[in-house]
Specification:
Elements (H helix, E strand, L loop, with lengths): L1 E10 L12 H11 L3 E3 L5 H12 L9 E3 L4 H10 L4 E4 H7 L5 E5 L6 E4 L14 H12 L1 H8 L11 E2 L6
Parallel strand pairs: 2-3
Antiparallel strand pairs: 1-4, 1-5, 1-6, 1-7
Helix pairs in contact: 1-2, 5-6
Length: 172
Amino acid sequence: MMYNDFVIVGPAADPVGIRRAANAAGALGAIAEARATFVSRGDNSGTHVKENELWRAAGMTPSGAWYLRAGAGMADTLRMADERNGYTLTDRGTYYMQQDKLDLALLFEGGEILHNQYGIMAVNPARHASINFAGATDLIQFFISPRGQSLIANFEDARGRQLFFPNAHLLR
């Protein structure tokens, strides 16, 4: 129904130089090679799954004292990376919403691998009889409707930056 993207943030001085990386896997590879602090969500969330995909693309399995697992949500992971003067992978929207509270800079963005698709689906009522399937279906229809897609397109942060991009039209 909508998408945004993942970005890599870190110290504004970018001591590892990931701004110059050719791609996201290269950026993570440079962080690992430098043994620079990297804070992972470490919680099996979509962001953590994407991070693991990037490490595999870099041909690496991160480990060691430089690689920290927050085991927390994105806002807490960003704060931890900030406190440790480290790098982390985040979705752009959460970074934008937390940016004024952090000294972290957006250092790497772009590339299809950093695409972050959001979907919506109802829980199967045959497996979970107590759910409100009609309500779930109505919510789905709202989000994919022209009105819902317009609200998504116009959802901005305090600086006027669009946080999500509607794409339910691809379903039609």
